[in-house]
Design goal:
Distance between the termini: 17 Å
Order of helices and strands: HHHEEHHHHHHHHH
CATH architecture of the largest domain: Up-down Bundle
CATH superfamily of the largest domain: GntR ligand-binding domain-like
Number of strands: 2
Strand content: under 5%
Structural class: mainly alpha
Number of helices: 12
Oligomer: single chain
Number of domains: 2
Helix content: 55-70%
């Protein structure tokens, strides 16, 4: 949940990946609207000066991301990516450094993080075992006592990982894995969650609410805590 760790980078740029990025950009900015046919594989190959194999691989990647539909022997048509795309698109845009500012991905990512994180805290208060509850209280105390911001951030990261795991919700677990990776790829840094990490009393209150099984308080405290980063973007 905390935004720490190394920022991943995109792999080596091949001709296929360049074509993929170019077509993806045109789809996301509306140059190719939903329902529009893309030029044929042959036309793209000739127009871009690339092999048909490179074009074919690029189109397959677009299809996997939900951006186009490829019909056997027919046209490749643009899909409405807002309806058919998945969170993997967030990672792809972050890895390539091509998230259009108009999409507001940084804020959207943090808003989703806050929603899921708060409900994960609520579920953790209901479902966590005694050992998890005790560990959360201990970590919150350790965070409040730590003077080094880097140490506090590391503890905060571990604490939230335990909360999400304690929620017992696999969908939340996987979605937050993707969101955290996306935050790193979008070049968020640890300073963004500074207001969260610095408030030892709020972190203590969150751990105490979960330990007491107070799901309403856990949700409220977690949401207030996680909302603080949203105001920074």
């Amino acid at each position: 949940m905390a935004l720490v760790g190394p920022v991943a980078t995109a792999g080596p740029r091949t001709r296929s990946s360049e074509i993929h990025r170019e077509l993806r950009r045109a789809i996301l900015d509306g140059t190719h609207a939903p329902g529009d046919p893309l030029p044929s594989e042959r036309q793209l190959s000739e127009g871009l000066g690339a092999s048909r194999h490179a074009v074919r691989e690029a189109l397959k990647r677009l299809q996997q991301a939900g951006l186009v539909a490829i019909s056997q022997g027919g046209a490749t048509r643009v899909r409405d990516w807002r309806r058919h795309g998945g969170l993997e698109l967030l990672l792809a845009l972050g890895a390539d450094g091509e998230a259009p500012p108009a999409l507001g991905l940084p804020r959207a990512t943090l808003e989703m993080r806050a929603c899921i994180g708060a409900d994960a805290a609520r579920l953790c208060a209901v479902r966590a075992d005694a050992a998890t509850r005790a560990a959360l209280v201990a970590r919150a105390e350790a965070l409040a006592a730590a003077g080094d911001p880097a140490v506090r951030t590391a503890i905060y990261d571990v604490l939230w990982d335990a909360i999400v795991e304690g929620s017992g919700n696999l969908a939340y677990r996987l979605a937050l894995n993707t969101l955290v990776a996306g935050q790193r790829l979008l070049s968020f840094d640890a300073a963004l969650v500074g207001a969260e990490v610095a408030d030892g009393d709020a972190v203590r209150a969150l751990a105490a609410a979960i330990a007491a099984g107070d799901d309403g308080a856990a949700h409220a405290v977690a949401r207030d805590l996680l909302d603080r980063s949203i105001t920074k973007v």
